[in-house]
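Q: Predict the assembly, please.
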Amino acid sequence: MDLLEYQGKQYFARYGVPVSDGEAADDVETAVAAAERIGYPVVVKAQVRVGGRGKAGGVRLANTTEEARAAAEAILGLDIKGHVVRRVWVEHATDIAKEYYASFTLDRTAKSHLCMLSARGGVDIEQVADESPEAIARLEVDPLDGIDADAARRLAQQAGIDAEAIDGVASVLVSLYRCYEEGDADLVEINPLVLTTDGRVHALDAKVTLDDSAAFRHPDWDVWRDLDALEPRERLAREKGLQYVGLDGTVGIIANGAGLAMSTCDVVKQVGGEPANFLDIGGGANAEVMASALEVITTDEKVRAIFVNVFGGITRGEEVAKGIVQALERVHIDAPIVVRLDGTNAEQGRAILAEYGSQQLVSSPTMLDAARRASELAAQRA
Amino acid sequence: MSIFVDENTKVVIQGLSPTSQGCYHGLRNRAYGTQVVAGTNPRRGGEVIEGIPVYSTVAEAVAETGANASFITVPPAGAPAAILEAAEAGIPFVVCITEFIPAHDEARVFAALRRNFPRTRLLGPNCPGIISPGKANIGITAGEIALAGGPVGLVSRSGTVFYQALYELTQKGIGQTTGVGIGGDPVPGTGFVDCLAAFQADPETKAVIMIGEIGGTEEERAARFIAEQMDKPVVTYIAGVTAPPGRKMGHAGAIVSGTSGTAAAKMAALAEAGALVAQNPTEAGELMADVVAGL
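A: Predicted assembly structure:
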């Protein structure tokens, strides 16, 4: 789960990473009232899950009530790379002396955590990494050891952080690592991490990605779960525990496992069809999950044919078949359903479908053949 | 021969109870011919479930039965401790199929194995397991989709594409030495390179199929290994050729990997390394059939 900037800052604050006080607002009047309380100058910042907000006009400085109103009016409703701004964050403006960059993430290759720190923050850090990789100091952090203040201080020196900011930056790194590790984040990133004109080190932005698998031990994350941000079908899928991504085509796809779901999209495209979606029912799906998957797909009017591609392992063929039958009895489905079933208990599954005997069901022996049938049926019904 | 597991592998199922996933799949594994010698459950020590003796701890199970592999299906909150318990008991090969273990737990477990138990190999988590056809099957793979006798080794990140690729080979009458599903989690205990190295060293494996997917850089590392250290032919398929680019927050990940993790980048790296690159699992099977015919 990606947090909005202000949520990330709230998360940082819990672990002692210094951030500015501020308030979130969903309308102009609330934003202006927040600015009045906080005291000018303030910065009004668009809260969207996408980079490049500044360039898109989503971050504005305001010195007066009028300017705060103008800023909130301009930003709320703004479309930034397809994300419409529905919330702003108002915080006291910071006098910046220097801008740095700091992050922790997993280095999958080293199977360790990686801290990256640079004295060149406030700019596109990927560009810095491309053009002058030496400007980014890296430290591998063993998950069993973590990072202590001495190691953090050495890294800050290595990164060329200004002398007066070394201790502050080191302290931020130690707190930020706690946020990353105890907070079960996949990524914590501060760009810019600033040195203020009065000598404090302070996070001016926050990018936090939380590990959804760890949600079971963080009930407090629920308040940040923003299902409204999803399109209705993705939201329905999420509520049913399905991984769904909408695409533009006409062949609805249901598969078990992300790899097979991707592979199914690949094959449909290769035989001339266009996938309408990616839908993974996950491992060990039962009949109910399968039925929900068909229900989700059926709400997509673009879908002309459905391709159910299941290779049973932990998922059992008879459950998949029962789910298809359940869905057909529960909801109205126009599109023909091409079913390819192999693996664990596939024969039982195929028998259940044969016995149900619906004209709408087309059984297909191989993945490639099923992809062709589904694509042809979709084309015929276009 | 085969890699990692064979007819001498003796499996202990951790967290065994009559209704557990471990019991369901463990019995299927046993029916396949795998030596399932023990189960563990702190509350059921002394019981016998479906003919499988249950011990309170893995250490006891090892002492009593000589178990040398473990199978873990317990839920995410308990799986990390189960993996470490197996390692502490001296189990050299641990298969963990548990899905949704938090990434930080995986990182800590892997770091602990690396530092304190270097002789234990973890397969998974979030993987389908491993099958050496005709000898041993640990995990959730349906045994009948595999064919004994070699000469092909198979390694896959995705579970279901692993089944698909095994099945494509089997339908063509091409046997497998071992199929390994390494899983797609952030910190897999066993990676592509580990499996490629083992297949390269196994005299009965004459060719290898590697199934990757989009994201990460493991396929690129595998490509380097293939170019530098393998003389056996390798056929590859990367799932997600047509996937739309994902939306990523933050930049640290992209800087670490140095590539976008796209299928195109991975396929180019593998082709450059001399691997045959298929567009889908069926084509991978066809390419391998040609390779095997030419052996």
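Residues 25 and 31 of chain A are 5 Å apart (CA to CA). Chain A touches chain B through 68 residues (CB under 8 Å).
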